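We were asked to recover a plausible sequence for a given structure. The inputs and outputs are reproduced exactly as logged, with field labels preserved.

PROBLEM: sequence recovery
POSITIONS: 167
GIVEN STRUCTURE:
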């Protein structure tokens, strides 16, 4: 059974409206759980090979998300809650990298811990963090996209709250 706090977090995941809201939640829970924080990141959407969800270039301030895979998950996912779970989990993973945690296994473990603590182990975000989104959606394995597109899109107003509400 999920705890009261987990029920509240599940509600918030279900009602996320966009990347900015998802990222605000990522930052809040990473601070709460791991006492880690940074500001000033930007989010870029780019078509990338289908085996790559997103990446953070070390030392940069950008998270680059695979728009091809996002669109595929949106199509395949059974609900907005699942799509939001994917978006949240990928952003949390890359945010942890951006905090200076380079090791892939460490980041995966922390993302899983975060999602389990927040939402319970049976939540789609926790399941995707544990293995891979394709555990939930085997259809993703047959996607054929193998190229990086040269075009990309910068998500507006991303990670601006610190500047707006700075004290
Ligand atoms: Zn990673």
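RECOVERED SEQUENCE:
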């Amino acid at each position: 059974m999920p705890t009261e706090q987990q029920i509240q977090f599940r509600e918030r995941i279900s009602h996320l409206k966009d990347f900015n809201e998802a990222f605000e939640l990522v930052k809040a829970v990473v601070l709460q759980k791991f006492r880690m924080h940074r500001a000033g990141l930007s989010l870029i959407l780019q078509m990338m090979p289908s085996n790559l969800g997103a990446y953070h270039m070390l030392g940069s301030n950008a998270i680059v998300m695979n728009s091809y895979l996002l669109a595929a998950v949106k199509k395949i996912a059974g609900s907005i809650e699942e799509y939001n779970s994917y978006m949240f989990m990928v952003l949390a993973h890359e945010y942890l990298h951006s905090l200076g945690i380079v090791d892939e296994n460490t980041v995966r473990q922390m993302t899983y811990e975060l999602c389990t603590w927040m939402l319970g182990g049976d939540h789609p975000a926790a399941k995707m963090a544990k293995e891979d989104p394709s555990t939930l959606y085997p259809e993703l394995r047959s996607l054929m996209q193998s190229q990086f597109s040269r075009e990309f899109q910068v998500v507006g107003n991303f990670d601006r709250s610190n500047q707006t509400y700075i004290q």
